[in-house]
Amino acid sequence: MIALALTQSHCALGNEESGPWLPLKEGFFVPLDDVPELFRAVGESKDASGQRADLLYVTAARRGGLQFSFVEVKFRRYLKTARALDFLDLVAEQLDASCQRWDKLFGQQTASLEKTVQRARLARVLRFYARKGRRHTLSDEAFERIDRELMKLAREGTGYPLPALLEQPRAKVGFVFRPEFGATAPAQIGSDVWLFGPARLPESQRGAPLDSAHQAPIAVARSPTAGLRNSAEVVESSPSAAPINTNEASLPPTGGVCTVEPLDAVDLLLGHRQGSDEPVQWRVSIRGNPHLLIVGLPGMGKTTCLIQLCRQLMDGGIAPIVFSYHEDIDEKLGALWGDKLRIVSYAGLGFNPLQVVDDSPFAYMDNVTLLRDNFAAIFPDLGDVQLGRVREAIKQSYIDRGWAAGRRGEIPPFGAFYELLKADSKPDKGLMTRLAELADYGLFEASAGNPSLLDSPAAALVQVHSSQNEVLQRAFSTFVLHNLYQSMFRRGTQERITHAIIFDEAHRATRLKLIPTMAKECRKYGLSFVVASQEAKDFDASLFTAVASYLALRVGEADARLMAKIFAPSDKVTLYADRIKQIDKFKAWFHSEGMRVPVHVALGDAPPA
Fold first, then answer.
1. CA–CA separation, 319 and 497 (whole Å)
2. Is the pTM of this model over 0.70?
3. Three-state SS for 308?
4. What percentage of the chain reaches a pLDDT higher than 90?
5. b/e sequence 517-531, b meaning 16+ C-beta within 10 Å
6. Taking the C-alpha atoms of 258, 261, 265 and 271 in order, what is their torsion angle to the nearest 10 degrees?
7. What percent of the chain is predicted at pLDDT more than 70?
């Protein structure tokens, strides 16, 4: 869209001597995607044109006669991909296909009756866009000249001379926008294709650093790793410059505490587009959706990907908090940061989940409901009546210490509700048996005072697997996440993403209702979420509405179709489902907000084949 807008801006200032730019003072553009019927033959219900250019430029010669040019606009970030022969061939194919379809519909070889209908339709569409052009940049003189020719076309029909398009000057023009291209004048990279940069952007003209070779503004890097890559691209346009090594593996490792200057947005390198050296990045920013969902079968590269994301998060000033369910990721993170990595293992909770951080009149009741849901996640076999008993006991523990609507009291000990349930004259034996198992591990003896993980800039590893008891593992992860949720509200809204909460085996935490709840709320509080699991069905359905970025490694049939439905065009779901099922190890399909189709990625730092 930016490339199209800049193309229009250059053409609006252009004249007949302005190089490749088509002057909008002398003609006007027709956006062909807005009028697909223009490329339909009489009786066709669907456009059969195949590839089609973006724009049609229309003008009239001073000596009479309409002239047309097809314009294709592309975006490429890197010079190498912009100059690639297959890319230039693609642009040429689209322009040639448009010219051939045009001559078939409106040229001399068309049957007389069909040509009359087609040309009447053409005259009607072009007059509409000519009037729009007059309201913007088209001069009165040029409009009158064009309007005169269009009236003749409508009146004479088949008798109006329309020469073959390829016989007209500048019948085909391609423009490729590259943000890091510093020159003010476009550079020709193909027979009809021109490369241009952001010189027309207002922010490029005010206070941006200048490329000394071209005296034009250049892009400013927004992340530590992106800064090196962008610098290499600027040098790329200067033949005399020495090459710069931008291999990310050569960057100095960061310690387990964030020491770099915080950034509004951090670009994390996932890998490179399959078959090229074009990097594929996931942007983490408080101004966008900062959450990522990763799904893939065991051994496909999830853990390797998470390790590299953690390293880059620290490089960008975002502290990862990793919920670990196996020792593999512990060893790799330990090797990365050593004793600077903050280890959280179960030895009692160290905080009181009954803390109330909100000042609303019923804040304590919100906590009661949240804790009830926590116990539902810890004990999935508890029924509604049993969970109701837990809720009433927690509520009573607050009331006994002076809490009521609009009135704050003392914070009760976490174990107070358990004592109330034990004192019941008719206790529920099934419920008490389950709670007693947690009590034996000292879970309800929690005390306040330990700092929150959100209060520290250090990377943290929550070793959920530190106990072999699966019930305690669920309880430990549940209440640590609960504490993060409370701390999030306590510290308030943030101006940037400060921490990333990462679940490396989300299927082990599938019943945690706080995961989708936090994903929906935590962005403005400075938190990003990364959840990785073996199957897409492991995730709560509401999580998919809160996440905008997806990384799909190889999965089974059902999960492949689910992921394809999320990010593939509706007419290509089956195609992408098959691709996801057959993808190689350490390869993935990535889709994020703003992308029309997913990208095939070779994941970074994968072991050599």
1. 9
2. no
3. helix
4. 32
5. bbbeebbebbbbbbb
6. -60
7. 84
In contact, 322 and 309? CB cutoff 8 Å: no
Check residue 255 and report its DSSP letter: -
8 A C-beta contact, residue 322 and residue 348: no
Q: How confident is the model at residue 313 (pLDDT cuts 50, 70, 90)?
A: very high
- Give the Cα separation of 130 and 138 in Å (integer): 8
- Give per-residue pLDDT as tens, 229-244: 333 333 333 333 333 2
Coil, strand, or helix at residue 116? helix
Between helices 557-567 and 573-582, what is the axis angle to 10°? 130
Q: What's the CA gap between 577 and 571, in Å, rounded?
A: 12
Scored b (16 or more CB within 10 A) or e, 115-130 reads bbebbebbbebbbebb
pLDDT in tens, 392-422: 999 999 999 999 888 889 999 999 999 999 9
DSSP alpha helices (H): ranges in 318-428? Answer: 327-337, 363-378, 384-399, 416-423
Domains of the chain from N-terminus onward:
2-194 (no CATH), 201-246 (no CATH), 258-342+455-609 (3.40.50.300), 352-448 (no CATH)
Spell out the long-range contacts of 467-475 with Cβ–Cβ below 8 A and sequence spacing 24 or more: 467/346, 467/441, 469/437, 469/441, 471/378, 471/379, 471/434, 471/437, 471/438, 472/346, 472/437, 472/438, 472/441, 472/443, 473/325, 473/508, 474/377, 474/378, 474/509, 474/511, 475/378, 475/438, 475/443
What is the identity of the amino acid at 558?
Answer: A
Name the token pair of 550: 């997806």
SS3 288: coil
Range scoring the smallest mean pLDDT among 69-73, 140-144, 150-154, 213-217 = 213-217
Residue pair 474/378 in contact by the 8 Å Cβ criterion: yes
Give the CA angle between residues 371, 373, 378 to the nearest 5°.
95
Distance CA 609, CA 601 (A): 16
Rg over CA atoms, the chain: 31
Q: What is the three-class DSSP state of 512?
A: coil
Distance (Å) of CA 102 to CA 51, 52, 54, 241, 517: 12, 10, 14, 45, 54
